[in-house]
């Protein structure tokens, strides 16, 4: 299985490098999303806001983490369904579904890590960053890790969806629904705390936990008045670690579902 995993990762890397247009697309998406930060009114960015723009940090966090959900989801949305015929031939020749699924997670884990760096760096290039870190020594590093974990979990979710759908045409509507759901459930635009059903649904959204980690780094509870008493947003290491840990834990069942579904894929 490990030989197959190395072969698949190497092949996927060569395919990306051989298509400059696709490689540029992967790099430009986070930079374009970062540019949207200029549309947020205010000059404080993710730092303590001014009196006229008290909601600026929360709006910036929504852009960051819903953007992370979008970039991660877009990476894996069409990957499995587009390769169905190739995968079936290679599986008949001895390819293990576990190696195939893990190769996708490994490759896109690296890709969304690069995208997370670009998204956060681009955002902080046009807007000021948080004043203090919670755990990792530098607030930008904490934001990059939180954005990467959010994008990675969202990518794993989109890979599972891609393995279940019957055709590429079915993927994009589902991706739009997933991204819009995360926009609603992240907690930054619409309050979800202490709202039955909505709060429980939000626990399943990667953007909810990514936003919580970002809000902990930014310390929105101290800087933005009138926010819900959300304990996950406290500027304390325990709460940041909890949000990051949930994002990591989300990928485990999603990876298992991906491998399980890959083993059952049939020609349509």
Report on the architecture of this protein:
The chain is an all-alpha fold and 268 residues long. Helices cover 69% and strands 0% of the residues. It contains twelve helices and no strands. Helix 10 packs antiparallel against helix 12. The longest helix has 30 residues, at 97-126. The protein is elongated and about 65 Å long. The relative contact order is 0.15.
Flag low-confidence runs: none
Percent in strands: under 5%
Encode the helix/strand succession as letters.
HHHHHHHHHHHH
Structural class: mainly alpha
How does the major sheet shape up?
A: none
Name the overall outline. elongated
Total DSSP E strands: 0
Radius of gyration: 19 Å
Could you provide a short overview of the structure?
The protein contains 12 helices and no strands. With 268 residues, it is mainly α.
Strands, helices and their partners?
Blueprint (H helix, E strand, L loop, with lengths): L1 H16 L2 H16 L20 H21 L2 H4 L1 H9 L4 H30 L12 H26 L6 H15 L12 H5 L3 H13 L1 H4 L13 H26 L6
Helix pairs in contact: 1-6, 2-3, 2-6, 3-6, 3-7, 3-8, 3-10, 6-7, 6-12, 7-10, 7-12, 10-12
Keywords:
69% helix; single chain; mainly alpha; 268 residues
